[in-house]
Design a protein that fits this description.
Keywords: Coiled coil, Membrane, Transmembrane, Transmembrane helix. The protein is mainly alpha-helical. It has a domain at about 25-73. Helices cover about 90% and strands about 0% of the residues. It contains one helix and no strands. The protein has one helix spanning about 10-70. The N and C termini lie far apart (about 105 Å).
Length: about 70
């Protein structure tokens, strides 16, 4: 009676072992990559909001500076 992979030999057994490992690891990597992409998207969204706030502050400061210069002259 032959083993489970007797008809395939060592190369076939190694191939099936590689398939089993990939079957387990690929979904794990996909999950980790998607999790990281979501984190990066959230960071980009927060950065965009902070940049908008900074731009609004700069516009306000420029307006105040122009008004103070106009009053001095």
């Amino acid at each position: 009676m032959e083993g489970a992979f007797g008809g395939f030999g060592a190369i076939g057994a190694a191939f099936y072992l590689a398939l089993i490992i990939l079957w387990i690891l690929v979904p794990v990597f996909i999950f980790l990559i998607s999790k990281r992409v979501k984190e990066m998207r959230d960071i980009a969204r927060e950065s965009r909001l902070e940049v908008k706030e900074l731009n609004a502050s700069l516009k306000f400061l420029k307006r105040q500076f122009k008004e103070s210069n106009e009053q001095q002259t």
